[in-house]
Amino acid sequence: MTITALPPEARDRVYAECARAISEAGPERESLFLARLALLLFEQVGDEARCREALAQAIDGLPTPSLSA
């Protein structure tokens, strides 16, 4: 399966829409929204090993939120 990266403009649009959806979900549903989104995207990928690798990459080096950042 060949995978192509999103062009920068599309990546920016999708990022903005994702941020909007997270805000719409609100703090009390944010985690549920993100887990559901991930599951839906994993189903689109259709490859368990690639999904697990994406999870590992996402958690690796994840910063702790800071108000001073």
Protein model, in words:
The protein is built from three helices and no strands. It has helices at 8-25, 30-45, 48-59. With 69 residues, it is mainly α. It is globular. It has a domain at 8-52.
Computed over alpha carbons, the radius of gyration is: 14 Å
End-to-end span in angstroms? 39 Å
* Main pleated-sheet profile: none
Uncertain parts: none
How much helicity do the residues have?
55-70%
Number of strands: 0
State the order of secondary-structure elements, H for helix, E for strand: HHH
Taken as a percent bin, the fraction of beta residues is under 5%
Structural class: mainly alpha
- Mean of pLDDT: 92
Number of helical stretches of at least 4 residues: 3
Shape verdict: globular
Organism: Variovorax ginsengisoli
Protein name: DUF2783 domain-containing protein
Short structural description:
With 69 residues, the chain is an all-alpha fold. The chain is 67% helix and 0% strand. It has helices at 8-25, 30-45, 48-59.
Notable traits:
single chain, 69 residues, 3 helices, 0% strand
List the helices and strands and how they pair.
Layout: H1 8-25, H2 30-45, H3 48-59
